[in-house]
């Protein structure tokens, strides 16, 4: 192995100086050491992937907490999607068992969709999901939500704009 780069050394120093603090911070939020270890690891992986200079960070604890908090939010969103999926399956009259791989892909897709739509108004998200997941027409959605078809179309345009923009971010 060749000599370590300056970036690698900076990340290593950040890890040595603040990993135990980050782990304790995560344990307080999660209540479990194993999950805290995983998220602490993921925090440093995200730093490495970003390849941004870490030697210029003025408040390393705030920087680490911000990244870890983002990972926590993503984790909680994923757990909420998994719970909703399980509840949806339980409500079905005849359960169709998916393979573990298909279940993982479905949950991953739903999580990505949730992240994509996050930040849109609730009504826009509801309209988009009724159209795309429930297969309702704009007229049916308008009737269910006491809206005009034009309002449904405008909401769908906002949602599609978000989907389109995400492809080019």
Descriptive report:
This protein is mostly helical and about 170 residues long. The protein has a domain at about 1-95. It has seven helices and no strands. It has helices spanning about 5-30, 35-50, 60-90, 100-115, 120-130, 140-145, 150-165. Helix 1 runs antiparallel to helix 2, helix 1 crosses helix 3 (about 60-90) and helix 6 (about 140-145) packs across helix 7. The longest helix has about 30 residues, at about 60-90. The radius of gyration is 21 Å and the shape is elongated. The mean pLDDT is about 85.
Q: Which tags fit this structure?
A:
single chain, 169 residues, mainly alpha
Write the layout of secondary structure elements.
Elements (H helix, E strand, L loop, with lengths): L5 H25 L2 H18 L9 H32 L8 H18 L4 H11 L5 H8 L3 H18 L3
Helix pairs in contact: 1-2, 1-3, 2-3, 3-4, 5-7, 6-7
């Amino acid at each position: 192995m060749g000599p370590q780069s300056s970036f690698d050394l900076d990340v290593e120093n950040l890890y040595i100086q603040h990993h135990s603090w980050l782990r304790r911070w995560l344990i307080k939020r999660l209540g479990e050491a194993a999950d805290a270890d995983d998220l602490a690891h993921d925090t440093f992986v995200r730093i490495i992937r970003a390849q941004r200079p870490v030697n210029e960070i003025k408040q390393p604890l705030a920087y680490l907490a911000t990244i870890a908090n983002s990972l926590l939010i993503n984790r909680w969103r994923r757990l909420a999607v998994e719970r909703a999926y399980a509840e949806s399956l339980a409500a079905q009259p005849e359960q169709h068992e998916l393979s573990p791989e298909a279940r993982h892909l479905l949950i991953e897709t739903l999580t990505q969709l949730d992240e994509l739509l996050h930040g849109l108004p609730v009504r826009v998200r509801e309209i988009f999901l009724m159209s795309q997941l429930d297969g309702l027409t704009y007229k049916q959605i308008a009737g269910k939500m006491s809206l005009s078809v034009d309002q449904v179309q405008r909401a769908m345009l906002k949602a599609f704009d978000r989907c389109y923009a995400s492809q080019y971010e």
